[in-house]
Design a protein that fits this description.
It contains seven helices and five strands. With about 160 residues, the chain is mostly helical. It has two domains: about 30 residues; about 110 residues, Winged helix-like DNA-binding domain superfamily/Winged helix DNA-binding domain (Arc Repressor Mutant, subunit A, Orthogonal Bundle), CATH 1.10.10. The strands form two sheets. It has a three-stranded antiparallel sheet with strand order 3-5-4. A two-stranded antiparallel sheet has the order 1-2. Strand 1 and strand 2 form a beta hairpin. Helix 4 packs across helix 7.
């Protein structure tokens, strides 16, 4: 069913009116101070998301989801779900090349050098992350001309 332009206009006007109280912006709709930090730290509140983010920081180039799946030995749906959380938090960006999507780390807007540096260095000696990185680097060696061409592997010998 198609809505008329008049109905859409009325709904937009009602939504705008709901955002104001007596002509003033409704303060409850504004972001609180520190909300950006909270969003990032919530996103990093899951061990698998920490592993994904640390891999992206350490590998030094954009990575395809299938490469992360094989490196972390987790199901594709689970990696994709966690990647979506990291994207919403502003920690991960992506670029599409044909059917492949390559992900890379982003520095969230407003993050101080100290906080960002701590995120980058906090897991430097972690043994599990070291193994994850080794498997990812082995998986990325299967690329042709710098591009992922393999897709998901049933069993990666990485």
């Amino acid at each position: 069913m198609r809505r008329s332009p008049d109905l859409r206009r009325r709904r937009r006007a009602a939504a705008a009116a709901a955002a104001t109280v007596d002509g003033h912006m409704n303060m409850s709709r504004e972001r609180e101070p520190g909300a950006d930090y909270a969003e990032v730290f919530k996103a990093l509140g899951d061990p698998l998301r920490v592993r994904i983010f640390q891999l992206l920081l350490r590998v030094g180039e954009p990575v395809c989801v299938c490469e992360i799946v094989d490196a972390l030995e987790q199901p594709q749906y689970q990696i994709s779900r966690h990647m979506a959380v990291l994207k919403r938090a502003g920690l991960v960006g992506y670029r599409r090349e044909g059917t492949w999507v390559y992900h890379y780390p982003l520095r969230p807007a407003g993050f101080s050098d100290g906080v960002w540096g701590e995120l980058q260095q906090s897991f430097a000696g972690d043994e599990l992350l070291g193994e994850d990185l080794r498997r990812l680097q082995a998986r990325m060696r299967l690329r042709e001309a710098g591009r992922c061409v393999v897709g998901l592997q049933e069993s990666c010998d990485c």
